[in-house]
Amino acid sequence: MTALAKIVHPAPEVEAEPELTDGFHLVIDALKLNGIETIYGVPGIPITDLGRMAQAEGMRVISFRHEQHAGNAAAIAGFLTQKPGICLTVSAPGFLNGLTALANATTNCFPMILISGSSEREIVDLQQGDYEEMDQLAIAKPLCKAAFRVLHAADIGIGVARAIRAACSGRPGGVYLDLPAKLFAQVMDAEAGQKSLVKVIDPAPAQRPAPEAIARALEVLKSAKRPLIVLGKGAAYAQADEAIRALVETSGIPYVPMSMAKGLLPDTHPLSAGAARSTALKDSDVVLLIGARLNWLLSHGKGKSWGEPGSTKFIQIDIEPREMDSNVEIVAPVVGDIASCVQALLDGMGKGWQQPPSDWIETVKTKREANIAKMAPKLMSNASPMTFHAALGALRTIVKERPDAILVNEGANTLDLARGIIDMYQPRKRLDVGTWGIMGIGMGFAVAAAVETGKPVLCVEGDSAFGFSGMEVETICRYGLPVCIVVFNNNGIYRGTDTDPTGRDPATTVFVPDSRYDKMMEAFGGVGYHVTTPDELTRAVNEAMNSGRPCLVNAVIDPAAGSESGNIGSLNPQSGIKKKK
Predict the structure, then answer these.
(1) Architecture in CATH of 381-565
(2) Is 563 helix (H, G, I), strand (E, B) or coil?
(3) Distance CA 551, CA 544 (A)
(4) Is-contact 364 254, C-beta < 8 A?
(5) What's CA 524's distance to the chain center, in Å?
């Protein structure tokens, strides 16, 4: 008996569902593909989940209490790393809070990208009243280097790539990237999404100077009897440290560092003219500007700070051709990136370069030593309450003993005096208010400096400056960062002794007397110190920095010790009218 064969019908094949991705993951993947590992921001609608997912994907997400400080952190991260720092904010008010930092980054030439969630175009354009509705792209455009909006998930890769290249190439600056809420939830095929991502190749390509520009600059330098080099923060950003040092030492030309360029060569270098700045600027006949602009910080290249009109010839290295002749004639413009330009000048000097006349070197040296000697007694006092000079003298010694630490500095007198008193020994170790001279950068800069470098941070703040961002001590404690904040507490802005002529209110420049800022740090689990003498200040700061913990030192300064607007009081208009009593 033959068994009938059983007919087996194959089961129908089930197609595997395609793997999908969405806008959230594409933004994260695009950033990671380009080597960006840290985001600074404040969570909220519609970007809360973006921060969570970025953290889950291995990125570091540093969450602040206010968007402006997150933006400042992103900006200085860009300065320190040459990669764009990323600030992530919510829409409308959050975006506006970040905009100050974005504009400041652009002014200071720091690469930064502000990424903000936003309302949908169709609602914004018809002004239909969406949640936090605002045409953010239009608002951002005048205040940054470039602004882009991404509407489709498939364009996220190219949008991020364009933002990175815009932030880093040429003269660095701030870029705004607008991501409407609907974009994050858009779904597409994962493989297609991966292919849509763009890795930016050479985001800041070298721009080498024209040989004739180098030859012209060298001819002008050769003719100088009293040459001077001015180093700006652009020189520090370039990270061409060895070439810049070689240029200074080969040329034998004295140099003046702007504040954030301090440490490119040690401030104690024999050719440093920082302590003889006034003499060096006024008496020089040829000035080579490296990464420095002739703006208000250099008296626009004219006026009382300089010699007779037309007596100084300027050579300027800048990657932006439009910077030349911005205030005075530049007789030898050198257009290109700083590393390439400095190396070309160095190569052109060769081995037989004739250094400046010895009498010019001796003039600068004599003035420098005289100013240092004149300053010394002010730095040695151990009186209570402290003067600014005595307190900064104590910190000067600490920085000398800890040259690897990063100094963040802001205030009026606290800033202006520290620039001249505290010597720096390594590049990119001094971070301060920069071109605009704005207050409030302190805590954001301190957080990013600690996160990006892993180095201890000493943050020296005026009590007024600290008030702009003081709540971020909670952020410093939350992340356990090695930041020691010193608040110079003189009970007010400039001085704590002003009064209201009517007797009704406190004076506009006066704070609560004898405030205990150290208690703020203790409230969040950090360590607080209250000191009244330079010796106590020295002990407290050394103990704090040795601990590696978040610490705040409330340093009591004589309320009468300050001067109005520090060293820039001339910019504060005075009334020309005297009212009759």
Answers:
(1) 3-Layer(aba) Sandwich (3.40)
(2) coil
(3) 6
(4) yes
(5) 26
Q: What is the DSSP string of 313-359?
A: EEEEEES-GGGTTSSS--SEEEES-HHHHHHHHHHHH-S-PPPPPHH
Q: Which residue has the higher pLDDT, 345 or 575?
A: 345
Distance, CA of 355 to CA of 251 (rounded, Å): 6
226 has a pLDDT exceeding 50: yes
Q: Tokens 């009186």 identify what position?
A: 383
With CA atoms as reference, report the closest residue to 355 among 222, 216, 215, 220: 222
- The Cα 354–Cα 221 span in angstroms is 10
275 close to 302: Cβ distance less than 8 angstroms:
no
Domain-wise residue ranges, the chain: 20-196, 211-364, 381-565
Check residue 190 and give its pLDDT: 97
pTM, entire model: 0.94
Question: What is the CATH superfamily name and number for domain 211-364?
Answer: TPP-binding domain (3.40.50.1220)
SS3 131: coil
Three-point CA angle 158, 160, 161, nearest 5° = 60
Whether the CB-CB separation of 186 and 153 falls below 8 Å is answered with yes
Q: What size, in residues, is the chain?
A: 581
Pair of tokens at residue 46: 């519609």
**CA–CA separation, 294 vs 146, rounded Å?**
24
The answer to whether the 20-196 and 381-565 domains have the same CATH topology is: yes
When pLDDT is cut at 50, 70 and 90, the band that residue 578 belongs to is low
Task: Pull the structure tokens for residue 499.
Answer: 């009064």
- For residue 46, is the peptide bond before it cis, meaning its omega torsion is within 30 degrees of 0? yes
CB 30 within 8 A of CB 197: yes
As a whole number of angstroms, the distance between CA 539 and CA 175 comes to 43
Tell me the CA distances in angstroms from 352 to 33, 211, 251, 253, 343, one per residue in order. Answer: 48, 19, 10, 15, 16
- In the structure, what pLDDT confidence band is assigned to residue 562 with cuts at 50, 70 and 90? confident
From the options 3.40.50.880, 3.30.870.10, 3.30.470.20, 3.40.50.970, give the CATH code of 20-196. Answer: 3.40.50.970
Alpha carbon dihedral 292, 295, 301, 302, in 10-degree steps, equals -170
> Does the structure show a pLDDT above 60 at 7?
no
Strand partners, 177: 115, 148
Residues 391-420 have pLDDT tens digits of 999 999 999 999 999 999 999 999 999 999
Select from 470, 571, 570, 477 the least CA-distant residue to 522. Answer: 477
